[in-house]
Amino acid sequence: MASIGHATLLFCVLLFTVSGARASDPELTKEFSVPPGVDASQLNGNYFTYTGFRGGVSTAPGETGSKKATVTEFPALDGLGISFFLMSFAPGGVLPPHLHPRGSKLIYMIQGTLTVGFMDSNHKLYNSTLEEGDLYVVPRALVHYMANLDGDKVTKVIFAFSSSNPGSIRLPENLFGSNIPAKVLKKSFGVSGKVIEELEAPFYKNTTGDYH
Ligand SMILES: *[C@@H]1O[C@H](CO)[C@@H](O)[C@H](O)[C@H]1NC(C)=O
Ligand SMILES: *[C@@H]1O[C@H](CO)[C@@H](O)[C@H](O)[C@H]1NC(C)=O
């Protein structure tokens, strides 16, 4: 019995250690990361230059547009714990509630205004209306939203993350586009199946049949 207890404890400790390690980029034990199969002596300044942001980012009316430089687009970021996005919000553009499991986010305002907010685990809202030149920080893994609700000017911002691969979980898709049984959603939100169907409609993939 005692050995089973110890095994369980060891398993829990291991699980905690592994998930803790995954919460941020692994430590780099050299100056920078060299992609597998690449001869380090062949690397030059181009490897550390990302040109994907040239021309900025365009936005359809009422929408948001983005360009990103995470470790996927810019391999030199591997192990450095940083990444960078350019975002553009047309008037009426909304970034729905979402979270980044692996990175805190700094938002720097280049142009326009932005309505932002995040919520803590007590459901307290920390909102703000950002103006050109402002900096706002969203702590890692907290749900937040952003919108250009003001006027007719495009809003341009930079996101800087404390991870080379911050990830993103968008709540509308996560809750209503993942085929959670409707009975669970109805009880969780205290609404009818009709309401759940409406919320699922934009994401419905017809994979589990009718469970309403
Ligand atoms: C924050 O949200 C509250 C409630 O919606 C609103 O009254 C207030 O004006 C907002 N504050 C800022 C700075 O946007
Ligand atoms: C999904 O189900 C809806 C409702 O039954 C149907 O109208 C639609 O054609 C289906 N879509 C696909 C891709 O099967």
How is the biggest beta sheet arranged? 5 strands, antiparallel
Q: So, CATH architecture of the largest domain?
A: Sandwich
Give the terminus-to-terminus CA distance.
46 Å
What's the average pLDDT? 88
Extended strand count = 10
Small-molecule binders: 2-acetamido-2-deoxy-beta-D-glucopyranose
Structural class: alpha+beta
User: How do the SSEs run, as a string of H and E?
Assistant: HEEEEEEEEEEHHH
- Summed up, the helix count is 4
The percentage helix is 10-25%
Q: How are strands sequenced across the largest beta sheet? A: 1-2-9-4-7
In the predicted model, the low-confidence regions spanning at least 5 consecutive residues are 8-22
What is the CATH class name of the largest domain?
A: Mainly Beta
Backbone CA Rg: 21 Å
CATH level-4 homologous superfamily of the largest domain:
Jelly Rolls
How much of the sequence lies in strands comes to 25-35%
Q: How many domains would you count in the coordinates?
A: 2
**CATH topology term of the largest domain:** Jelly Rolls
**Overall geometric form:** globular
GO cellular component, one term: apoplast
Keywords: Apoplast, Manganese, Metal-binding, Secreted, Signal
Family: Belongs to the germin family.
Subcellular location: Secreted, Extracellular space, Apoplast
